[in-house]
């Protein structure tokens, strides 16, 4: 099969012909029809993720068609249209047994712990636990765009952030994660403030539900601005970028008993950020991480998509070919264009 391969961290990936994958006994092989471009792939390529061994095929936001299933798979067969969360749970450990596959002790991650979906085919283990059936009307590009950022934002806003109607929600960073969070939080009835460095992204944030915007490049004190707009601070706030300053602001702009959810990856120089811990205690703030979403929780999100409350297709950005993926991957270290780029031609 054709795949994007890198042999050394930080070196230009190339298109190569590599052996087709075989399904594990409890796994499937999926013909990839669409795969999203994500900053996590850039981190992996840069060598920020210890789970990767070389040579490596990146890609973890995928949708496609099952072409082969192992003998132990009972729920899936060739021809079914599917997607999969980026954290693939083993189905047997304590966390999986308690319903928390997103933090499975033995999780595999396509594109990190195994070869990923920047390829014509990808193997996914533990298929019965992890595959999600796609509604017939959903395009593969939209389904791939859910894989990481949209589902992570759904869990961050709904399950971890516990947003309720009428609350103020601040979203720091309007890349794929941030825009997803804005759409989801406003569908949940919250008043959302979008914060970013570019007016273009903020204008798009307003279109998909933000009621207020802050351009952080023109605002000397973002925390103060959030407090003014919200009359005292946000109830829930999210760092969707993953940077020491956005993480700090997202905690510092909360009102008493507010909830911060960290979704943007904090890697490399940002791995150990400063936290206003004095305020965390005095205000009884909550700080939570959010890491993907369990396959069984897709159902609720898919219903909101089916009824038109959520429109993830609006967040699909440019569509490119696999041949263009190496250059696009290397560019992900900079700021993304609007929406989620997707490889749709292989
Ligand atoms: Zn597990
Ligand atoms: Zn991703």
Automatic annotation (TrEMBL):
<dbReference type="Pfam" id="PF00107">
    <property type="entry name" value="ADH_zinc_N"/>
</dbReference>
<keyword id="KW-0479">Metal-binding</keyword>
<dbReference type="InterPro" id="IPR020843">
    <property type="entry name" value="ER"/>
</dbReference>
<protein>
    <submittedName>
        <fullName>Alcohol dehydrogenase</fullName>
        <ecNumber>1.1.1.1</ecNumber>
    </submittedName>
</protein>
<dbReference type="InterPro" id="IPR036291">
    <property type="entry name" value="NAD(P)-bd_dom_sf"/>
</dbReference>
<dbReference type="InterPro" id="IPR002328">
    <property type="entry name" value="ADH_Zn_CS"/>
</dbReference>
<dbReference type="InterPro" id="IPR013149">
    <property type="entry name" value="ADH-like_C"/>
</dbReference>
<dbReference type="Pfam" id="PF08240">
    <property type="entry name" value="ADH_N"/>
</dbReference>
<keyword id="KW-0560">Oxidoreductase</keyword>
<dbReference type="GO" id="GO:0004022">
    <property type="term" value="F:alcohol dehydrogenase (NAD+) activity"/>
</dbReference>
<dbReference type="InterPro" id="IPR050129">
    <property type="entry name" value="Zn_alcohol_dh"/>
</dbReference>
<dbReference type="InterPro" id="IPR011032">
    <property type="entry name" value="GroES-like_sf"/>
</dbReference>
<dbReference type="InterPro" id="IPR013154">
    <property type="entry name" value="ADH-like_N"/>
</dbReference>
<comment type="similarity">
    <text>Belongs to the zinc-containing alcohol dehydrogenase family.</text>
</comment>
<keyword id="KW-0862">Zinc</keyword>
<feature type="domain" description="Enoyl reductase (ER)">
    <location>
        <begin position="10"/>
        <end position="343"/>
    </location>
</feature>
